[in-house]
From TrEMBL:
Pfam families on file: PRY (PF13765), SPRY (PF00622)
Name of the gene: LOC113053196
Chain coiled-coil ranges: 205-246
Superkingdom: Eukaryota
Domain named B30.2/SPRY: residues: 287-479
Keyword set, alphabetical order: Coiled coil
Record-linked PANTHER family: E3 UBIQUITIN-PROTEIN LIGASE TRIM
Ranges of Polar residues composition bias in the record: 133-143
Record-annotated membrane-spanning stretches: none
Protein name: Tripartite motif-containing protein 35
InterPro entries in the record: B30.2/SPRY, B30.2/SPRY_sf, Butyrophylin_SPRY, ConA-like_dom_sf, PRY, SPRY_dom, TRIM/RBCC
């Protein structure tokens, strides 16, 4: 009976005058219409009849949309039948919830006395700090400005150090590649000399010795360059470290030495590192026409190619054959040193030997390739970036289904070719200033350039598709080298 009376007192409490404040918990809420709820769900409790009167009265109150009860309290009341028979427990739950919510809201909106006290203490400490530092504020300001100026002066040195570090890393990678080249070249030399059997052992030893000497020479050259860079880096690092240590000194001492330190920074201007041209192993010197050179001493005849490829100039998408007479295009880039001799934008490669006099001829098998060009390139012509916008190149090629002749910076000229070209003969008469292209299979002239040559010219090749490689064809072995 006491529980029923308590629940009835809760229901019969008059609503507050403030609109949208919950009658039970006191929180603001947005009123909404409530559908009729069923409080009993088939429970056969002994106290069902005792609670019926109170719950029916409660249902009537909850259905009244003008009664200010929030949805949380309304839900708790409608679940009364699930709690079985303890109305006081529901009332206590609602009351405790309302009290905790109100305490939380008060705590969030009103700072505690402890928080106020801490703020007052912090304000007092800040005032004391301001008074203590007032006497040295001028000196600190001067020191900060000087340090900032010195930091600005240090930035070029730090940048220079990073340049040296990157260059040293690239040089070490080049040194590893030189070792790879030496090992690869030695293997090729060994294979060739195995074919010549025991009678060629002496020549093999001589070739390997020459290779080792060149490897040592190139490695020594690179080691000296690396050692020089290391000394420059050590000096630069020591200067930077010393200046940074002086910046950590007391303000008075720092300002006293500031002018001398700044002068030291301005005087420390080491030169930028420079790429070393020709640092890679000269592979063609050891492999170009190797069999011809050796067998010539034995008065025997072998195949001889008047031109071979220089792999140190080949673009990273070009793969040069072991005997340096064939080159093919690959979609996968190789990891190669970025030496100055190498083409970096277009898939090109040069011949291993340049010509500055006389007449020279070489035949190239282009096969079914749909993108290729052949010609010559001046020794001073730029090999980096956009090479076809500069002078020093003369070529004939097949581009986009058309045969064209090109002498940069002029625009390419269309060539009228009746049959598809499979083989091209390139003839250079350096003294007469004439470069001619023909089809040796049909003995048909294709195109000629005339120019007064003044410097060494290198055979120039390019291939832009992987359908078929470019192959330099051998000449008759009975032909002497100096007659080509």
């Amino acid at each position: 009976m006491m529980a029923q009376e308590s629940l009835r007192n809760v229901v019969q409490t008059k609503p507050r005058k403030v609109e949208n404040d919950c009658l039970l918990c006191g929180r603001e809420f947005y009123p909404s219409k409530c559908n009729k709820h069923r409080l009993f769900h088939g429970n056969k409790s002994e106290n069902k009849a005792d609670h019926a009167v109170v719950l029916e009265e409660l249902v009537g109150k909850l259905q009244d949309t003008t009664l200010a009860i929030c949805s949380i309290c309304r839900t708790l009341l409608l679940r009364y039948d699930r709690v079985s028979k303890d109305a006081e427990r529901i009332k206590k739950l609602i009351t405790d919830t309302w009290r905790k919510m109100r305490e939380k809201r008060c705590a969030e909106s009103t700072p505690s006395l402890e928080v106020k006290r801490r703020r007052e203490v912090m304000d007092t400490e800040e005032d004391d700090d301001d008074k203590n530092t007032a006497s040295s504020s001028l000196q600190s300001t001067d020191s900060a400005a000087a340090k900032e100026k010195l930091k600005t002066a240090l930035k070029p040195l730090q940048l220079k150090l990073r340049i040296f570090q990157e260059f040293q890393k690239a040089s070490l990678q080049t040194a590893e590649y030189i070792m790879f080249q030496a090992q690869y070249t030695e293997g090729r030399i060994k294979e060739e000399f195995v074919k010549l059997r025991q009678s060629l052992c002496n020549e093999e030893a001589a070739r390997k010795k020459a290779l080792r000497e060149e490897e040592e020479q190139k490695s020594q050259m690179l080691r000296k360059k690396i050692e020089k860079m290391s000394k420059e880096m050590s000096s630069l690092s020591a200067t930077i470290t010393a200046i940074e240590e002086e910046m950590k000194a007391e303000d008075a001492l720092f300002l006293q030495n500031y002018d001398a330190t700044l002068k030291r920074v301005s005087q420390c201007k080491p030169p930028d590192p420079e790429n070393i041209s020709g640092v890679l192993i000269n592979v063609p010197k050891h492999l170009s026409n190797l069999k011809f050179t050796v067998l010539q001493k034995m008065q025997e005849t072998v195949d001889y190619t008047s031109v071979t490829f220089d792999p140190n100039t080949a673009h990273c998408n070009l793969i040069v054959s072991d005997d340096l007479t064939s080159v093919r295009y690959s979609d996968e880039e190789q990891t190669l040193p970025e030496n100055p001799e190498r083409f970096d934008m277009f898939a090109c490669v040069l011949g291993s030997e340049g010509f500055d006099s006389g007449s020279h001829c070489w035949d190239v098998e282009v096969g079914d390739s749909t993108g290729w060009f052949l010609g010559v390139m001046a020794e001073s012509a730029q090999r980096r970036n956009k090479i076809f916008s500069r002078r020093g190149i003369w070529l004939v090629g097949h581009f986009c289904g058309e045969y064209k002749a090109h002498e940069p910076p002029q625009s390419p000229a269309l060539l009228l070719v009746k049959e598809k070209l499979q083989r091209i003969r390139v003839q250079l008469d350096w003294d007469s200033g004439k470069l001619s292209f023909s089809d040796p299979l049909t003995d048909t002239h294709i195109h000629s350039f005339t120019h007064t040559f003044t410097e060494r010219l290198f055979p120039f090749f390019g291939v832009g598709c992987n359908i078929s490689p470019l192959l330099i064809l051998p000449v008759k072995s009975s032909v002497e080298k100096n007659q080509l």
